[in-house]
C-alpha cells in the first residue's frame, strides 16, 4: 500500500473541486483538511490505510456532485464528532455554525441503535427525513459516506457486508433515487448486489464481458447514425450510449424470468440538446429513423417527476431488430437528471443563500413528515414511507389540468386526499375520464380524475385503509377515525387485541397484572390500555404488533423467575404455529417455509437434478444444480443450504441446451424437426457460427423432469454433425 501523503491527497481533492464546483476557496478547504488529518491521526481503516482517507474520499464524491464549500468541509469533518474528542462548539468556532450543524446532522444519522430491525430502519428513515427537511446537504454527505464505504466493503466481515448491503438497497439507494442522484443510486445498487447475491452478480458480469465487443460496436454504430442525422438536420447535440447497470439487468431477469441473452435493450442512448424546442424536434426525427414501440413513450418534460427529473423517453427498434431506449433532454435537464437536488449547487452562480424556488423544491420532504406524525406503528409507518419515497409514480390530472403525482397503483381515494383531507373525508364516488369508477380503481398515467363529494357523507370507511396506497391518504384516514370515533375505536381495538392475544396464548390477566401494567404502559409510551386499543381501532398500529411488544415486555420482566405458565403457553402456541414445510415452485428449503425461490440461469436446474440452494440474504434462495460451476468453485459453503424437489410437481421448468456441431446448412432445420417430433415446448432457439468450422445452437426448453430433457438430448445427438450437447454451468 502506497504511503499516505497529505499534500498529494489535498492536490487530488482540489483537482476534483476545481472541475466540478463553483468558486472554491482553497484556504477554507485546506483548514478543514488539515484539521481532519490531525483529528484522525493514528486511526486506521480495516484495510490498514489512514482513516482520514475515507473522509477525503467522501469529500471528493461530494465535490463530484458540485456541492459548496461548507458541504465539502463538512464531508472532510463528518466523522470527527463521533470518532474523536472534537466538540460541536469547536467546529462552530473554527469553521462556522453551518459546517458544524451539517457535521452534527450526519453524526446523528448513525449514533442511535434500536432493539429491533424494524425500529432501527424506521428511526433511520425518520432521522434522514428530518435532516433533509433542515438541510439537504446532510443527506447528500451521508450518501457520499455510504458510497465510499460500499466501495471498500471487501475489507469488512461477511456479516457486516450483508447487513450494510441490505440497508443500502432498502434505504440509501431509494433515497438517492428520490433525490434524483441517479449515478449514485446506480452504483449503490450494483455494489449492494455484489454482496447480497454474488452468484447472480458474477453471472451477469461474465455474460456482459463476453458480449462487450458486440454491444460496443452496436453502441458506436447507433451513436454515429443519430449524430450524423442530427447534423444533417442542423441540430447541435451530444449523443452517447450506455449499458444498463448490473442491478437493473438483474431485476429485469428475475421479474420477467429472463436470461441475460433474452434481454435485448441492454443499451440506452441520450441525446442532449441546447433548448426545449429541439427536444421535440429530435423526438420526431428519432421516430422517423426507427420504429417506435407502442406504449413506451414518456414525456417527463411536460410532467416532471417529483424530484424535478425532466426528459423525453422513447423505445424504438433499430434495423437490426434490436430495441433500445432513447432519452432526449437539454443540458440543464441533464445536470438535474445526473445530480438531482445537488444540481442546485451545480448551477448556483456563487455566494451564499438559497435560490428562488428552493422552498417549494424541498417542501415535499416536510409534507411527507407532516403526514406521519400520528402513526405509532413502526411497520405501518415504514410501509407508508417506503410507498411515498421509493415506489414508482403515476401522474394524473384534476379537471382544471393540475398534475398530481401519486404512488403506482394509487386509487381515487389517494387522489382525493392529495387534494385536501376535507375532500377525502366527504368523498362518495369518483369519475375517471368522465366515467364513474369504483373507489378501488387503479389510476393510470394521464387520467383526469373528478371526486364526487357530499356534505351528508358519514366519512371514510375502515376498508379505505386497505385500498389507499399513499402514506398521506392512510394517515389522514387514521386521523379522522382517531378524532371522530375514539369510543368506537376503543371497543373495536380491544376486541382485535384480545383476539390476537388468544391466538398466541397470551392471557389478559397477565396483561392487566397490576405489577406488570406500569412496565407495559412505559414500553408502549401511553397513559393507559385504552390508548393502545384506540390506536389499534383507528389503524395507528396493528394488534399483532401491540400484542407482540407487550408479550416481549412481560417475558423480559420475568427472566429471573422460573419458567412461568405464560412461557409454557407461548411454547405451546409456537408448537401450534409450526407448519409442515410447503413447496414453493416445486422446491422444499430446509428450515424455511414459503420463502422466495428463483432458479439460477447459470445451470437451469429441473426436477430430477441434484440441487443445492444459495441464500442471497434479502433476495430469496437461488436454486442451482450440485454440479454447477458456481457451487463447485465457491470455497466458502456457509451460505449454501440443503434443498430438495417436492414429491408432487406440476410446474414446468426452463432448461438450456448448448449444442456444438459442424458448420453446415440445414442444421437449424434438422434440430427443429427433432424438437417438433418430440412435441417439445421451445421457448427460444438461437444459432451462430463460431468462425472455426463449427456452429453453436442454444435452445431453451420447458420440461417437467430431467428424464424428459435427457430424451431430447438423446434424439439431438443423432442429428448429423452434432459433436457435443451440454446444459451449461458444469464444473
Rg is 30 Å
At the fourth CATH level, what is the homologous superfamily of the largest domain? Hypothetical protein af1432
Number of strands: 21
- The secondary structure category is alpha+beta
Q: Number of DSSP helices?
A: 32
The CATH topology of the largest domain corresponds to Hypothetical protein af1432
Largest sheet, strands/sense/barrel = 6 strands, mixed
Overall geometric form: globular
Please, what is the average pLDDT? 83
Précis, in short:
The protein is an alpha+beta fold and 731 residues long. It is 51% helix and 15% strand. It has 6 domains: 6-195, Hypothetical protein af1432 (Orthogonal Bundle); 199-346, Beta Polymerase, domain 2, CATH 3.30.460; 372-472, Roll (Ubiquitin-like (UB roll)); 485-577, no CATH class; 587-645, no CATH class; 653-726, Alpha-Beta Plaits (2-Layer Sandwich), CATH 3.30.70.260.
Please characterize this protein's 3D structure.
The protein has 731 residues and is an alpha+beta fold. The chain folds into six domains: 6-195, Hypothetical protein af1432 (Orthogonal Bundle); 199-346, Beta Polymerase, domain 2, CATH 3.30.460; 372-472, Ubiquitin-like (UB roll) (Roll), CATH 3.10.20; 485-577, no CATH class; 587-645, no CATH class; 653-726, ACT domain (Alpha-Beta Plaits, 2-Layer Sandwich). The chain has 32 helices and 21 strands. The strands form six sheets. Strands 1, 2, 3, 4, 5 and 6 form a six-stranded mixed β-sheet that branches. α8 packs across α18 and α10 runs antiparallel to α11 (182-196). The longest helix is centred in the N-terminal third of the chain and has 35 residues, at 198-232. It is globular and about 85 Å long. 36% of the residues are buried. Residues 111-116, 349-359 and 372-376 have low confidence and may be disordered.
